[in-house]
C-alpha cells in the first residue's frame, strides 16, 4: 500500500513539475522598460501521435474582462510564419520601436490598438518548425494541412485542460493568410470533438479569417481581374487574357499559347507592383520572381536577416519588410530567449517565416469546410485589406457567394472616427451569419496596415454591434 501511495505521489509531482516547466508568466521582457502592461504567458504543449511535437505559444489575457471576454486562437500564415510576428506587428499589445531601431536590441512599446483590448488571445507557433516550436524526432518535423488541424485542436484541448478558469469562455478560431485556410479545418475538428463528447467541451462560437487563402483556384484566379479593376493593366490586356484563357488565369493550360502570351503581357505590367500592398514600394529584397501569379512567390517575403538593410533605408525608399529586422535581432538574443523560457538547444536560428518546412499542402480547397460549418449556426467574420493583390477581396467574395447564403444586410460603408473605414455586407443561412468586411487602404494582412480600424471592426463584431 505504501509503495502504491508513493508511486501515485511521484506521478502527481511529475505532472505538476511538467506543467510548471512548460507554462511561464512573463512579467518583464528585454527592450521593455518596467513591468509589462499585460499578463503574458508562454509555454509548450506536446501534440502528435507520440507527443513528439512541442508547440510553443504566447497567451495574453484580455485587458478588459478576462473571465468574460472571448478567447481567440490565432493562427498566423505561411505556413511557417511565427506567432511572434502576429504578436508584435499585428494584433498583440506590444510593438517594436522601428523608428529608432539602430541594429541593436530593439526597444518595445505598447500597441494602443491591440486586440487584447477586447479578447484573450492565444498565438501558436504552428506548424512544427515554426518560430520556437520543435520536435523531439526528425520524423516529427513532417507536417501537413490535415495534421496541423488535428495538432492545433489537440493543443487547444490540452491548453484549456491546463487553464480550467477559461473553459467556459466563448472561443473563436482566427487566422490570416494561409492560417485562414486552417481556420475552418480547426473549427470542424472542434465541432467533431464536441459531438464525440471529448473533454473539455470547447464553447466554439465562430471563426475569423483575414486576407485568408481558401481555394487557390478561386483566390489566385481573381488576381488578374483585381489588377484590371485597380487600373494596373489596360482593358485590352484583360480582355485578351479573359478570352484566350477562358477566365482561367491561375495554372493555365501550358498548351494554350495565346493564353500564355496574354498572361506574359500582364505579368510585365505588374511585376514591379508590391503584391502585398499595391501602393507600397516593391523593394529589392522583394525582387520579382519568375511567376508572381503563383502562391508562394507573391505572399512570401525574403526577409531573412542577411537581406535586411540597416538602418531601414534603401535608395531613399521606406520598405515595410525591412522593419522585420527588429524581430530577428530580438528573438535571437539569448536574454530574450531566457526571458521567454525557450528550451535551450531547441532553436539555434530563429526566423520570422520558415520557408524550409517539411509541409504537405494536402487540402487544396476548404470551401467544403465552410459549407459544413454554415449549417451549424456559427458566426463568421471574413475581412480583406482592399489593396492586397496576393489574396484579393474579389476571390474571397467569390467563394462566399458559392456558399449559397442569403444577403441579410446589403453592401454599405462602415466608419471609424467619422471616416469610411471600408465596406461590409452580411449574409445568413438559418442560424449561421457571415459578415464580410473590406478594410480600406489595407494590404496583406489588414491589422498591420490599419490597426485602429481593425480593432474597431473586431470590437463591434464581438459585441454583436453593427459595423
UniProtKB/TrEMBL annotation:
Assigned keywords, A-Z: Carboxypeptidase, Glycoprotein, Hydrolase, Protease, Secreted, Signal
Query: Which terms in the GO cellular component ontology are assigned?
Result: extracellular region
The superkingdom of the source organism is Eukaryota
| E.C. number | 3.4.16.-
Please cite one Gene Ontology biological process associated with this protein: proteolysis
UniProt GO MF annotations:
acyltransferase activity, transferring groups other than amino-acyl groups; serine-type carboxypeptidase activity
Pfam families, from UniProt? Peptidase_S10 (PF00450)
Q: Where in the cell is it found?
A: Secreted
Cited InterPro entries: AB_hydrolase_fold (IPR029058), Peptidase_S10 (IPR001563), Ser_caboxypep_his_AS (IPR033124), Ser_caboxypep_ser_AS (IPR018202)
Asked if the keyword Protein biosynthesis belongs to this entry, the reply reads no
In the record, which residues are listed under signal peptide? 1-20
Of which family is this protein a member?
Belongs to the peptidase S10 family.
| The name this protein goes by in its record | Carboxypeptidase
Q: What is the lineage of its organism?
A: Eukaryota, Viridiplantae, Streptophyta, Embryophyta, Tracheophyta
Amino acid at each position: 500500500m505504501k509503495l502504491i501511495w508513493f508511486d501515485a505521489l511521484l506521478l502527481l509531482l511529475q505532472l505538476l513539475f511538467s506543467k510548471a516547466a512548460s507554462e511561464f508568466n512573463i512579467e518583464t521582457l528585454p527592450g521593455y522598460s518596467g513591468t509589462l502592461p499585460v499578463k503574458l504567458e508562454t509555454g509548450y504543449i506536446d501534440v502528435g501521435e507520440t507527443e513528439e511535437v512541442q508547440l510553443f505559444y504566447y497567451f495574453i489575457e484580455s485587458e478588459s474582462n478576462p473571465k468574460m471576454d472571448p478567447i481567440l486562437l490565432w493562427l498566423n500564415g505561411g505556413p511557417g510564419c511565427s506567432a511572434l510576428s502576429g504578436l508584435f506587428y499585428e494584433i498583440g499589445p506590444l510593438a517594436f520601436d522601428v523608428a529608432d531601431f539602430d541594429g541593436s536590441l530593439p526597444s518595445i512599446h505598447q500597441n494602443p490598438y491591440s486586440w487584447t483590448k477586447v479578447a484573450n488571445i492565444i498565438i501558436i507557433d504552428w506548424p512544427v518548425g515554426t518560430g520556437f516550436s520543435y520536435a523531439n524526432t526528425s520524423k516529427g518535423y513532417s507536417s501537413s494541412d490535415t495534421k496541423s488541424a488535428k495538432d492545433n485542436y489537440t493543443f487547444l484541448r490540452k491548453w484549456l485542460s491546463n487553464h480550467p478558469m477559461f473553459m467556459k469562455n466563448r472561443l473563436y478560431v482566427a487566422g490570416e493568410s494561409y492560417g485562414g485556410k486552417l481556420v475552418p479545418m480547426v473549427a470542424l475538428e472542434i465541432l467533431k470533438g464536441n459531438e464525440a463528447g471529448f473533454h473539455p467541451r470547447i464553447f466554439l462560437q465562430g471563426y475569423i479569417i483575414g486576407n485568408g487563402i481558401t481555394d487557390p483556384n478561386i483566390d489566385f484566379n481573381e488576381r488578374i481581374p483585381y489588377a484590371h479593376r485597380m487600373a494596373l493593366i489596360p482593358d485590352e490586356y484583360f480582355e485578351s487574357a479573359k478570352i484566350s484563357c477562358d477566365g482561367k488565369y491561375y495554372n493555365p493550360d501550358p498548351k494554350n499559347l495565346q493564353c500564355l502570351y496574354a498572361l506574359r503581357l500582364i505579368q510585365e505590367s505588374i511585376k514591379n507592383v508590391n503584391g502585398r500592398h499595391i501602393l507600397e514600394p516593391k523593394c529589392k529584397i522583394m525582387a520579382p520572381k519568375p511567376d508572381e501569379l503563383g502562391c508562394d512567390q507573391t505572399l512570401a517575403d525574403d526577409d531573412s536577416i542577411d537581406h535586411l538593410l540597416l538602418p531601414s533605408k534603401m535608395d531613399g525608399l521606406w520598405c515595410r519588410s525591412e522593419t522585420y529586422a527588429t524581430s530577428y535581432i530580438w528573438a535571437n538574443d539569448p536574454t530574450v530567449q531566457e526571458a521567454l523560457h525557450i528550451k535551450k538547444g531547441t532553436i539555434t536560428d530563429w526566423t520570422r517565416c520558415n520557408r524550409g518546412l517539411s509541409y504537405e499542402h494536402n487540402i487544396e480547397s476548404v470551401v467544403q469546410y465552410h459549407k459544413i460549418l454554415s449549417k451549424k449556426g456559427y458566426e463568421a467574420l471574413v475581412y480583406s485589406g482592399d489593396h492586397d493583390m496576393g489574396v484579393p477581396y474579389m476571390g474571397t467574395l467569390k467563394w462566399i457567394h458559392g456558399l449559397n447564403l442569403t444577403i441579410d444586410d446589403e453592401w454599405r460603408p462602415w466608419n471609424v472616427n467619422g471616416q469610411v473605414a471600408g465596406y461590409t455586407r452580411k449574409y445568413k443561412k438559418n442560424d449561421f451569419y457571415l459578415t464580410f468586411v473590406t478594410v480600406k487602404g489595407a494590404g496583406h494582412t489588414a491589422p498591420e496596415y490599419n490597426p485602429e480600424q481593425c480593432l474597431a471592426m473586431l470590437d463591434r463584431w464581438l459585441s454583436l454591434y453593427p459595423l
